[in-house]
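lol ok so funny story. i was supposed to be doing the assay writeup but got distracted and ended up predicting the structure for this chain instead. priorities right. anyway since i did it might as well share w the group, maybe its usefull for someone
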Amino acid sequence: MRNIYDVLRGPLLTEKGTILKEKENKVLFKVSKSANKIEIKNAVESIFKVKVDCVTTMNYSGKKKRMGKHEGRRSDWKKAIVTLKQGEKLDFIQGI
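and the output, tada:
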C-alpha cells in the first residue's frame, strides 16, 4: 500500500463542489491517477478523521493546448467525489 499523502493531491474548490458539499454532504478531491476507491477512502478517513460512505471516481484526459506553432498537452488527472456519512462534516476553508 502507498503512502496516504501520495493518494490525495488536494481538494477541488469549485462552484459545483460547493453546491454538492452543502446539499449532499459530498467533497471533491484531486487524486493520484493510479489510486483506487479503497485507497481514497482510507486516506480521507485517516487524514481528516471522518467516516466515508462511498467514493466515486472520474478520469479526465488532458486537453491539447497551442503556443504559437507549437502544440502541447495538459496532463491527465483523476477526480474523486467522496460522500461522507450522515452527521459528518469536513471544512477546508474556515473563517471566511
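The chain has one domain: 4-84. The radius of gyration is 15 Å.
back to the writeup now i swear
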